[in-house]
Amino acid sequence: MIKNILIKPIVTEKSQKLINERKYIFLVYKNANKEVIKKAIEDMFNVKVEDVNVVKKYSKKRRTRYQFAKTPEKKKAIVTLKEGYSIETLKGV
Description:
The chain has helices at about 15-20, 35-45, and strands at about 5-10, 25-30, 50-55, 60-65, 70, 75-80. With about 90 residues, the protein is of the alpha+beta class. A hairpin with a 4-residue loop joins strand 4 (about 60-65) and strand 5 (about 70). It is elongated, with a radius of gyration of 15 Å.
């Protein structure tokens, strides 16, 4: 259950700059809380997590050609690692 919390890492120009500050951004499921995200990161990557910040992106109405549709809701976790730890698999992506 814990390993199913993380959907994928978010790899953008801004997220690559945050790696220098030991911050990594992940897309997570909507029902995940900070404690569960922290445990999942520590178990999956064998690191120590200092802090977890969560950002919710709510859905919006968008007009399509024939009807209205909604964009999907998303939840991002910004994970700060303790000094001396890093996630090597995300640096070269």
